[in-house]
Structure formats: C-alpha cells, structure tokens
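yo, RNase III domain-containing protein is done. seq:
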Amino acid sequence: MDMEIDADPTKKLKTESFETYNIRSYADILSQPFLLKSAKYEVYFYKFFEISQFGILFPIEFKPCPDFIQFVKKRKLWSSELNSLREFQHVMWCDLFQVLQVKNGNLSNANYLVVPVKKKRIDWDRVKNALYDEELKTIREISINDRPNYMYQSVKKRHFLQYVKTIMPDEETEKILNEIFDQAVVVNNENNTVTDRRILVKAMIDKKRNNDNYKPFIIAKNAKPVRRMLRVVTSTTKSPNNYQILSEDEMQIFYLNSVQYEEATHLLVMLSSLESVSYIIQFAKLYNYTGSFTYLRNGLTAPSLDNDSNYDALENLGDVILKVIASLHFFSKYEKDREHYLTWRRTEKIKNDYLSKIAKRHDFKNYLRTRELKYIKLRPPYYEGQNGKDETDQVLQRISDGQLADMVESLIGAFFMGEGMLNSAKFVYQLDVLPEEEQNWAYTLQYFDNEKLTVLDIDMISSDILCENPSFGDIIPPMSEKHPCGDLFETPEMVEDIIGYKFKDKSLLFEAFTHASQENKTNYERLEFLGDSLLDLIVVSNTFLMGNFNAEELTTFKHIIANNNVLSKLAISLGLYRFLKCDLCQAEIVDKFLDTVTWDEDICNFGAYDDDPPKCLNDIFEALAGAILIDSGSLRVVSQVFGSILKLPMIHLVRNNEKCGPNIRSRLSVYGQRARKKIRIEESDTDLGCLATVYIDEIPIVSHYSKTRWLAKQQAALKAYQIVTKDQESAEIESN
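structure:
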C-alpha cells in the first residue's frame, strides 16, 4: 500500500479565496451623541497612559477599557462648555496641521473630543486662550530657564516656533554655534547639513548684531505640522533654513506648551487606534462581554494587522472548548448513539465551513480587524479645515471564510479567558452554534461555572517539582511491577484511591473500564468520546498562560500529551490496565505489550516512538475522565483531577518548548514542501513484520521493520528525516 505524505497544512492558506470590502474606521457606537440629562451633557472622561497632557471625552463608556487609556470620571458639561470644546477641536487641529482656520471641509461623523488636561482636569485656560483673541504674552515675560517649556508663534507671520536659545549681547558667536550644533552632529550624523546650518545661522546672528548689538535676541526653530512629523523621511537632505533669529517682542506664547505640541504627533496615532477599537467596544456591548480587554482585542484581531497580539492562540483554545461543549451536548441529547455517530455529529458542528456560516449570520466580518486606518489619513472630529488628499474614514479589509471560522473559535477562547467556561458556553448558545432544544442546553450548562479550571501556575515552571533534565521515567513513572491485564476488574473502586476521586455512581466507574469485546454490556466508547475532548482542554488551557505560545505550539503540546502513546503509558503507570474488563484476546494483546514496553523515549520528539500501545489503554484513560465529568457534574472537578495527573508532562513541555515539534511525519512533509520534493511511504506486511519504505522523488531512502504498520511508518519517517536534515546541514556548511 502506498501512502503519500500529507501536504503542508500551511498551503491551504494560499488557495483560500478572500473577500475585499471597505468599512468605516470607527464603529457606529462612536457616532452616538452626548446625552443631555438635567440640562447638562454627560461625558466620559479618559486619559492616555502615554500622553500626559491630553485627555479625551466620549459619549459612551469604553468598557472593557482599552489598555492604552485610563477612565478618570463621568462628567457633566453645560451646553456652552460642550460647544467651546467642539470649537476648540477645529482651532487646535488647524494650528497643529498649520492650515488656515477656515471651515470649508467635511465633518467626521465620529463624536469624541480631545482636551488639554492639567492634574486630571480639563485645562480650560488653554481652551480659552485658543478661542478668544486676547493679547498674548511675549517671550520677554518668561524667564530664560522656563522658555524651553513653551511653544511660540511669530507675531508677523504666525509661524509656530520651538525655542532654541536666548543670545545675550556679549556672547561669542562661535560658542553659541557649538552649543547649538555639536549635539546635532552626534545625533544625526549629518555633517554636511550641519555645516550648512552653522554658516546660515552665523550669518543671521551677525546681521542681527549689526542692526542692534545691545539687546538679547532669540534663536528659534520652525515647528513642523504634526502630520509632517509623523511621515517617514526618505531623504537625508534637509533644508538648513529652519532657524529664525527674532527679537523678544516678535515671539508670542502659543496656547499649547512644548510637551503638548510634541505629544500631538503621538495623539493622532492614539486616535486612530481608538477609532479602530471602537468596534471591540461595540462587540462587547452587543454580546455582554465584561472580561479583559486584551483577550477580546486579540480575539478580534487578525495576524495581518498585529503579528504578536492576535487571534492565533485563542483560536486554538476556542477549538478545544467548543469540542468539549459539543461533545457534552450531543452525549446528553443522543443517549443511544454510539461513539462514531457522536463524533460525526460533533464534527459537523465544529468544522470550518459551518463556523464560517455562523460568523456570516452574525456579521462578524464587521468586527474582525485585518487592517487599521493609517494615522496620517485620520480626519479628527469637529475639524472643518480643507479636506486633505489623503484623508479618509474608509479602511480596506480582506477576509476569508477560514478567518471567519477562526474568529468564532478565538472569541469562544476570549470569553473563556476573560470570563470563564460558563460564559464561554453561553456565548456559544447565543451564537446558535448548536441549535438544540432549551432543555438540552440547560443540561449542558449545569456542568460549567466561571471558576478557575487550571492547575498550573507560572511559579511551577521554574520550581524543583521536576528535575532539570528529567528522563521519561521521571515524567511518567514506569510500572513498579507487572500484573495481568484485568486482574482487578471486579474491584474498580480501587481506582478511586489512585486518582483521588470518589464516585457517587459506581456504575459509571464500571462502564469506564468495560471494553467493547464484552457483548451485551454498556462499554466505555461513549465516555471515551467525551473524555477525549476533556483532555485536550486540560492540556491547552493549562499551557496557554505559561508562555506566549502560538497556535502551532499549543497544538504540539496537545498532540504530544493527548495521544495514544503517552496516555497509554499513563494508564500503565497508574495501574489502570488492571481494571480493564475485556475478552481473553484483548487481554493477551495488552499483556504482550506490557512485556515489551519501553520507557526511555524523548517525550518532546513527537512521533519518534518505539512502541505502538493497544488503543484500549488510551481509551480507558479518556473514558475515566468522561466518567468523572458525568458523575461529578463539574468540569472543574475533572480538570483538577486530570490536571494533577498531567502536571509533570505539561511542565516539561513548557520548559522545553523549543525542543518540541510536530509529528515526525509532519516534519518530513514540511521538508518535502520546502525542498519541492515528492515524499511518499510505501508499506507492506512481510514475514519479518510490517515494512515501511520512504521514497523521495521515487528514490527509496530508508526502510524500517516493526510490529505494526503505524510504528513502521513512524520509525521510517524518523530515519528519513534524520538523513535529509543531516544532508541539508552538510550542504550549508560547504556553501559557507
């Protein structure tokens, strides 16, 4: 029989079709008016963490609060105060953009107000100075030490200026130039430009002194418009003509200080982000999410927008959560269905095609952020200056059905991390992912609460709970003494002492250890179906917070632990095989395996095993988890019991994450995809056992005999992978 190695799963992304569409840069919730109550308008006052001297007023509460702003208080403003702040927006942005204060442009439909702040209060003095034509102070009225703290404007041309230095009549010109420009050489490394500037400024100083050599004067720099300050400068050539020499009477104090003018550049970036996350706030209000902003933001953020904080890991977590919910739901609803029918029903409700339809039904594409408006294109609210050629409120989004399906799962994960398992299940119910009768949902939800499920904490990773370089036996202790399979099947209550849980319904315990070979008896298959999903959740939920792991790493942890080899050896280690109720044939298979089982493998090297355990050993481990869930009526209980059993393997994988990789056959497949080579494995039965041969571009590379076909393929793939990676390393060494 020929078996072609599975294609690289990442290739699926290349064949997905994408929908491209425009959405507004802010959600409808940010267009709501300020609410009038008792003759005053309600506003929600926030401060920025990274911008100390500006705040922002919203008509609605940003809840959950984004991590870059801080709620200050709910305030009430008179109509005159609100109108002043609206007018201030236009004046301030005209000044910051350095455009004429004429109202001939479009108004944004967004509704929020940027305000100068002083000690967590609106700085009304600066607002009044901006709006009313009062006589402004000149720089002469400011002490020399305080002058760098202000921004200025020239009296004649209304240029905006940054203070550089006050020149006294008796100061030497060369000393002045050295003080101004020496630091510029170190910082900018632009010797030619600095030389040009020195020559020009020297000429300006000399001219000023020739005209009036007995008064102090000011060297100032022209302040750039904030949008120009944000743009990336591609040329290193700068005009030296950005300095001015002015008398003290020619410089008036601007209503924004130097820190505020500098912060205004970052302010546009913050406003762009706020408009973008308004979709997250709108989603939270729609689905009553009250958990951490970070989890919901990540759940609604595509990797194309943020490579570090996105839905990637949450999607993996949401996948196993949905699997648990669906498993329990169908387990209770279809009491007569066998395991394979339950698996089919579950698969139909958790596959990507179905989940993408759920996302479309709820218009999730309006909330998934794949791109964000560039801040230099932002048109702030209440700014009515001439329309800029780059200004827009439209953001081009690009999304696929696969991303929509991932989004559903990531949001399930976000609700789990932010609020708990019960609320995550209620979110699934709200989406109508499992459209069943109310009584079925009531049964399903009773197993969940919002309490902590995990047993790992970050301190355990660095503790001495496990030695630094443990053997497989340190992680999963080997059986101390071999016993016949099933020798204790009449007394499964002894399992309770092993796992530390007392069953209320002993029949569930018997069912969990009854093999399908026992005709006319209820066997463990249905409980095993349930337990399979539970163990996946226990592994992923515990490892999720132990590091900044991506979806691929979490999947690897899950596959390494929740697979036939490791779970079977846990069943052997705990002595669970002694309680297996099966026929003589199955018992002999288990006994034979116990005679040959090895205990010296590297658990991190996924798939590189020397054993292929009988599946029944894995099954009773999973079935026991399902039995505890049904008996206790609590996901938290089964998570604590099996989390403790799986603690050491999970700690070891988290510590050695860089050594963990996908299944060896998957790694060989990825090599083939990258090297553009066709890889297949041919398998056959021989007198010496099962034979597997790896072919690369139809050339046989290596063969391996083993007792089962699966094990032969795994070992052959391992040998082939070692050969090709060694050849690759040799080629790289030669090329260097």
